[in-house]
Each structure stands twice: as C-alpha cells, then as structure tokens.
Amino acid sequence: MKKINTFLSTALLLISLFSCQDILEENPVGLAAADSYYATPKGISDALNATYSRLRVFYGQEDASFLTVPGTDMYTNGFGGVTNHPAVNDYSTNFLGTDTFVTSVWNNFYVGINQANAVINRAPAVAGLSDAEKNRILGEARFLRALFYFHLVQQFGDIHFSLQESVGVQTTAKRTPVATIYEQGIVPDLQFAIANLPAKAANYGRATKAASEALLARVQLTRGNWAEAEALASNVIKNYSFQLVKPYANLWDINNDQNAEVIWSVQFTSDVLTNGDGNQAHLFFLIDYTQNPTIVRDLANGRAYQRFMPTNYLIKLFDQTKDSRWEGSFKTVFFANTKGTINGKTVMPGDTAIKIVTYPVPDNVQNTAPYWYIDFNDKWVGASTITNNEIGGGQRRRFPVLKKFLDPLRISVNAVEGRRDFIVLRLAEMYLIAGEAAWRQNKLAESATYFNVVRTRAAISGKEKDMQVSAADINLEFILDERGRELAGEGLRWYDLKRTGTLLTRVKQYNLDAAPNIKEMHLVRPIPQTQIDRVTNPSEFSQNPGY
C-alpha cells in the first residue's frame, strides 16, 4: 500500500524529532545499520518511543480537533472556522478526499501503525531482554496500534489492515471490514496489553494496564458489547487509585495536569527543543478579545484562532444554578489589561472588560455598561441577524470560551506551542461508560448510581441533592446530555453521536450550519485522494461512497 508506505522505511522509524516527555529520545539510524540496531534493547526501545511520537501529531492538533469537535450538535464554526476548513463542520460538497486534515490524520496513524508493527514483529527476537521486558514493550506497542486503528475505523470505516511491518514500497491496498479489524486487531491488542502491562508505568505517559482497560471499555461501548464495557469500566473505577478531582474546575489546572483523575494522557513539555508543535488546543476555542479597546493579547487570555463556537444546544445544556461544570469549563469574563473607554466610560486595567451571559439583557443595560455585555437571546449563534452584543456577534467572534485547554505557561503571547498534557482517558468517562452500558442492559438503578457519582462531583456546593437523577430519568437523550456536560470539547462528541446512531438527527436539529448538508455518507470521512491515486488496484480500494 504505497501511501501507507510513504510510511517510513524501517530505518526511519527511529527518527522522531518530537517525542513524549520522559519517554522519547532522537536516535537517527542509517539504513545499513537498521536491522542490527533494532535487534538491541536500546534500538527496540527507541523504535517504541518513535511510535509514541505519533500521539503528539494527533492530540491537541488542528486536524484532529476539526475531525472530532465541530460538525456535531455542540460545536460549529467560529470566525476562524468559517475562514479555515469550513467544509468539515458544514459537510459541504467541498469536503473531499483532498482535505489536508483528512490526509494528515490518515498518514499519521498509518505511520504509527507501521512503527508499532515493526516493534511487535521484532521485539521477540531481541537478545538481552527478559520475557517480562519483551512483553511490556509488546504491550505498549499493541496498545498504541489499537488506539491508532480505533481512530481510523471510526473516521473512515473499512480500511487497509495489516499486522505486519512494511519495509518496502507497497502499491496495493485492500479494504478490511471494520468488524474484522476490531476482532483481529483492536480487541486482542488491548487484551494483550491488559495482561502484560503494569498497573503503573515507570515513566508517566506510557501505556498501562489501567489505560488499556479504559480504552477497551470505550471500544466495547462503541461496538455495543454492553456487559464487557460495564465490567471493564467498573474495574478501572474499583481496582485502581484514580479519584475524581474536586471541584470540577481543578481538573483543568495546568499546574496539576497529572492529577488523580487522569488514567492516561499524552505528554507535552515546557522544553521548546523537544515539544515540537506542542499542544495547540488552547488556540481553537478562543474569541478575539483584542477587538475590545481595553484588552491586548496576553498569556492569560491566550492567542485566539476562533475555530469553534458553541451551538445553542451547548449554551443551554447546563443548569448553572446547580451544575458547576459550566463555570468550570467556560471562561465568560475578561478583564482589561490596558486603559480604554467603553460606552463612554473609562476602564482601567483589572476592571471587567467583557462579560458573556446566557440570558437576554436589556439594550439600555448593554449600551451603558462599562464593559462589553454579551447576551444570549436563543437566536441561532451563526445567524446573519445576530448583533455585536449577542453570542455569535462580531462575525462569530463573541461566545463563551472553553477554558479546558488554556495555556498561560507558553513562552510568549504569540507562541502556539502549548505545554499542557492532553488528557485522553479519565475516571469520569469510566463512570459514564458504565452508566450507559448498565442502562443498555436494563440495569436502571445501577445506571443511575454511576451517573450520580459524576453529577455529585459536578454539583455546586450545597446542591448535591438537587443534582441526583433517578432510574426513570435515564434515557439516550440524558446520556448524550450528560456526556456533553462532562466531556465538552475533549474530542469525543463526533464519535459519541456516530456510535449512538444520532449524528444525522442531532446535527440537523442543533447545528444549523451543517443541517442542510449532512447525509448518511458523512458517517465516514473521505479517504485521502492521495491514497486513492497511488494504489494500483483502485477497484479494490475505492473512495467512500458519495465523495
């Protein structure tokens, strides 16, 4: 498969410029020495580390964010989304296999898969390693391979599937059914990882037994294997030392991103020499606050790419009288950092400069306030009739800012390279998986119990009782709402809507930018056109229908 093999030849597997903190090192190796180098403990370790490096090319990056966050019921295009790749959210006829985000995600994961295959194929023959060490290396590589394939099958459907290392150029490809990839690749890979990885990694950020169980719980939920999903999630809840961080807002404290709730995260670093492109998720959910005459760009408020704007559904999803997750997830107040004038009033540094609320405010109050008073009148946030003083105003430049990824520790106000770790698996999701899986099995009381643990943590102090739900409250709409409140912006929503069979209906209902265009074909992405063009057996590897 030629595109898969633009796919580093074996020797290039070790050239990893950007690597996981405390995990990866750069070790370029010439072609002639590759085979002998891989046969050493150091060489196979470096090959594994190179496989980890593919994580940083996906998590926290723009291409991955576009393919997992917008085009859903919760997020649509902000100003920067309209001007950059709007077709992804809108499902327009311009969303084709030539899209660079689709191509980069595809290429990155197939590079990672081939790297993992090289490790898995070669590690058993490495001299100088104990069986336990070999199995740990194999377990980590198989965890990563499972994760890469899991993303690919969800995004693209039936794809090329190989468990063997590709060394030379391959010009043919074959579609393998998604079910086969789960049964022969993803599930057995994770089962092996569970059996062979330690509960706690020697280096933070490496795959563990708990991470493998958590990922397999997500996989089994996606496949509709409810009992297995509940059992795996419940085991992670009960048999490890993970704890929900309280209050919810503290979960996103950048100075505590290796907290007790994190099961597994992708590591970034403050070292500019090894951080590569960094975690760039801080860029995508921000508004251009510098349009306000009293704020200039600073580290605290971030650099605004304005890619993604909350839909009306997301704005109205939280009961702010009792649920702390609105305030814990969104930044709605900005403070002046330079002297200026708003509505004829002098504003000094430290004064409120922007206040965003989710209810209507009378015009006379907005027009006399000593700050921008942005309100919400439940008009579609992307409507042409939205005024500058409403959410969605200023050409989609004014809206509540998801603050989960803000990074005030960057080296400069213009730096895009963030150092915040990207949380991939956390304990709250395990409760949500167990709760949904229990409900699917008609275990309604157990389901409510799981959800109530998450909701109790989310409650505003003194409102814990008001946040409880009963068995009668649990249905698919509640489950999607609760996952939305807990996991907003974390890269799971598109997958959630697809696996629950609600992507089309909910996008049509809640995302008016995408509603006119979305069709059944959009349940998978287009195969990159470069892949289609380069195979010599196009009849066996054609484009996804409709593209």
Automatic annotation (TrEMBL):
Residues of the RagB/SusD domain: 261-547
Keywords associated with the record: Cell outer membrane, Membrane, Signal
Keyword Phosphoprotein set for record: no
Record's signal peptide: 1-21
Occurrences of domain SusD-like N-terminal (ranges): 98-221
Main localisation: membrane
Top-rank taxon: Bacteria
One GO location term (cellular component): cell outer membrane
Record carries keyword Hydrolase: no
Location relative to the cell: Cell outer membrane
Entry's family note: Belongs to the SusD family.
Name of this chain's protein: RagB/SusD family nutrient uptake outer membrane protein
